[in-house]
Amino acid sequence: GRETHVCVTGFCAETEELLKRPPFPMNTTHVMVPFSLRDWIDKNRQAVAKGRALDMFGAQFETETVLYGSGESNGCRSNVDTWIWQLEGTSQVTLNGQALSLSRGDSLLIPGQSEYSWKRASDSIALYVVQDPERKRPH
User: Fold this and answer.
1) CA atoms within 13 A of residue 131's CA, in its CB half-sphere
2) Predicted pLDDT of residue 75
3) What is the 3-state secondary structure (H, E, C) of the chain?
4) Is the pLDDT confidence value at 42 over 90?
5) How many CA atoms lie within 13 A of 84 on its CB side?
């Protein structure tokens, strides 16, 4: 048998070698620098106030994240859930004939295959999030 020597750190030489050369390929995907959501919203407040929906990350990820201001949307995503987070102001979602009011801090999960309409008041700022596996790209 082969003897291993314990290092001062408590790891044997074989363990240290494994840490240097992982037994599987590492994911080398680069991620963006973290940012303050509040600062990003403040920086884009005028565009949202003019009715523009702002896609936060584009089509590069499987998660679609869009910031909405006032306006109306209708939706039905066949196989994925939709999550709405009301950050400021109010909005109303009609889901399966039921009107649901959202106020600052409220969130709503809309199950996949559900038709809904979403009316956002003039003071509304809300985040719309959908994680769709169809958008997933290999590393």
Assistant:
1) 2
2) 82
3) CCCCCECCCCCEHHHHHHHHCCCCCCCCCCCCCCCCHHHHHHHHHHHHHCCCCEECCHHHCCEEEEEECCEEEEECCCCCCEEEEEEECEEEEEECCEEEEEECCCEEEECCCCCEEEEECCCCEEEEEEECHHHCCCC
4) yes
5) 29
Q: 134 is written with which tokens?
A: 């169809």
Pair of tokens at residue 114: 């559900």
Measured at the CA of 48, the angle between CA 104 and CA 105, to 5 degrees, comes to: 10
pTM for the structure as a whole: 0.73
Q: In this structure, which long-range contacts are made by residues 88-92, counting pairs with CB atoms below 8 Å and at least 24 apart in sequence?
A: 88/123, 88/124, 88/125, 88/126, 89/120, 89/121, 89/122, 89/123, 89/124, 89/125, 89/126, 90/120, 90/121, 90/123, 90/124, 91/118, 91/119, 91/120, 91/121, 91/124, 91/126, 92/118, 92/119
Q: Rounded mean pLDDT of 79-86?
A: 92
